[in-house]
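Example record used in the benchmark description.
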Amino acid sequence: MNKRTDENATIKKVGMFFAFFIFLLIVNIVYLCVSGKGLISQENIRDYNKERGGGRVTKIDYATRGTIYSSDGEVIAKDVKRYNLYAILSKTRTTADHKPAYVVNKEKTAAQLAKILGANKDYLLKKLDTKSYQVSFGNVGNNLSSIVKAKIEALNLPGLEFTEVSSRNYTFGDFASYEVGYASNTADDSQQVVGKMGLEKSYNDYLTGTNGKVVYLRDSKGNTLPNGVLSKTSSVSGNDVHLTIDSDLQTQLDSLMRDFVGIARPRHATAAIMEAKTGRMLAVSNYPSFDPNKRNMKSYNDLFLNGAYECGSVFKPFVYGNALTDKVLDINDYYQSGSFYYKGGTKPIRDTNKVGWGTITFAEGLYRSSNTAICNILKSHTNMKSLVSDYNSLGFFKSSTVDGLACGSGVAAFDGKTKNAEWYTTGFGQGSSVTPFQLLRAYSAFANDGKMVSPYFVDSVVNLRTKKKIYTGKTVFSEKIFPSSAVKTVKYLLYGVTHNKAGTVHSYYQDSPNDIIGKSGTGQVVINGAYSKSINSHSFCGMAPYNNPKVVFMITWVNATNNTKDAATVIKGITKSALNKLNESSKKVKTISYNLPNFMNQSVTYAKSQLSKAGLSPIVIGDGTSVIGQYPDAKTTITNSTRVMFATNGAKITMPSMVGWSRKEAEAFGSLAGVNITVSGAGTIYKQNVEKGTTLKSKQTIKVYAS
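Model output (C-alpha cells):
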C-alpha cells in the first residue's frame, strides 16, 4: 500500500513537471510571437532567423536598369553595384567545411582595412571589439566601389562580408544634368532604381527591366545547401537609351561655361547648340547645375527648357521675317530713329542710346539693334493677324514637350487686337517672355530655308538582348513659315550684325568657313515684382556657317554687366568644335569597330593580348597583375583610335603623358588612378604640371592645360 502510494506520488510529480514544462514552452512561444525574443535569453530570435536561419529562401534577382549613352558611345548613366562592408564577430559562424567565417585577428583586420578605407585604425578596432553577432562600419564602410571591394577581398581575411546595393552612377557628373536627370533607389527598396527627373524619368518605362527571382535552401549558418536552388527566373535588363548629345562637345561646353561663369558671375546662364538640319541637340549647359551623383541641385527648374524671360532684341529678326514674307518691307527704306510715338502712349519708346542715329535704313536699324525700327515696322508695315500667326507657328507663348520633358510656354503680354505698348515692346523682346528652347527652335527656321526643325535629345532606344532599335528619334520640320527670299534677306541682315561696322556684336565675328551670324539682345529683369534698374538679361542667338548653316546655337545670362566678349568666347569655341565634328563625321574615314569586353578580374596579360588583336594598346594604371577597373566600360563600341585604360591591383601608379588627350580621358584616368585632375581651358590637352613617369600619390592633384 505504501509502495503504491509512493508510486502515485512520483507519477503526480512527473506529471506536474511535464505540465509546468509545457506551460513554460507555451508562454515562451507566445512571448516569442509577440516580441520576437526568447523569454529567458532575451535574444532577438525572430530577426536572427530572418537573417541567419535556414530553410526555404526567396531572393529577388533585380534587373539591371538600361544604360544611357552619348551619341559617340560614352556611358552617361548606368547601374553600378556598390557594397556595404560588415564583419562577422560570432565564433558560431563557420563555412560549410567548418572553417572560421568570423574575424579571427581583430588587430590585423583593423590595420589592413584602415589602409584601404582611409579610416582610423582605432575606430575600426573599436567596432570589431563590439560584443555582437556582426558589426558594420558606418559611412567609411558603406557605398564602396567594386575596386575597393576587390582590394578588401584580396586580403583574404575571414569574417569580412558585403551587402550588395544597386545605385545609379553618372560617369561625367554634371553633364547636361537637367536634361539627363537622375534615377535613385526607391524609399522601401535599396535595390530598385527608378527615374525621378529628366530623361531618366520620361524614359523610365524603356529603361526599367523585369525582375526575376531565385528560390533556394540554406542551412542555419546562411550557407546555400549543395544543389539547394529549387527554381530560378532570370531577370530581364532594361533597354539602353542613346542620346544625340556628343560627349566631347558637352564636356567642352561645360568647361567654357565654367570659365564664363567665373568671369561674368551671372545669377544664372544657359547655352545650347543643335545640329541645324536634323534637330539633334549636341550639347546644353545650365548654370547653376548639379551633379546627379550628389543631387546637389538648388532648383529643379531646367533653365533651357523652362526659364522664360524677356529676351530683348534677339526677337527682332522674326518681325523682320514676317514683314519680308508679306512683302510690306524694303530693308533699304529709311525711317527716323531715336524716338517712336504711338497712340495712347504717355511717353515715347526710345532707342537704347536715347537719341538714335538720325534717318537710317531698316537694314542699319537691325545692325544697330534699333527699337524704333521695330516699332515703325509694327505700326506701318505689318498685318497684326499675320504676325500673330507667325508667332504661333514658331512655337512662342505656348507649352510643348521634347522627349517627354515639359517645355515652358512663356507669356504673351499683347492681346493680338490692339496696337498698344505691349504689342510694340514684344517686337523687341520686352514685356512678353519666351524660353531659350523656343528661341533656339525658332532660329532654326532661318537655317532651313524657312522651315523650323524640332530639337530632340534621344537618338534611339535599343533592346539589350536583340540589339534592335525599338524607338528612333526623328527629324520633324514645320510647314514653311518664311519663303526662301525672306530667309535669304534675314540671313544677310544677321551677317551684317556680326560683320558690318554698324553691327552691335563684332565680338562674335569669326572667319569663314566657320563664320557666325546672329543677333544679340538685352532685356529687363523683374526682381521682387519690379524691373531692376541694374540687372539685365543678355542673349545671343545665331547659326554657322553663313552660307549653309549646320549648327544653331544660343547663350543667355543674367547679371549687371554685359560680358559680350566673354560670351562670344563660349559660342566661338563650341561652334568651331561642333563644325569640325560634323565635318569629320561626313567624311568616309576607315575605322575598325570593336565591342570592348569586360576585363574585370582578368589578368593584365590576358587583357592586353586580347586588345592587341584589335590593334589596341591599353594604358595600364598600377603595377598589379589583375584588372580591377577599366575605361571605357564593357560592351562599349570603340574604334582603333580609342584610348583604353586598365586599373590594376598594384599600388605603384606612374604619370603618363596626357598630351593629345581629351578632357574626359584625363578625368577617366583620374577616377581609375584615385587622383584629382583639374583641367584649365577647353579642347585637347597640350601640357601637364606633373612629368611623365612620376610616381603618383593617392588623391594627388594634377593640373593639365587644354586649348
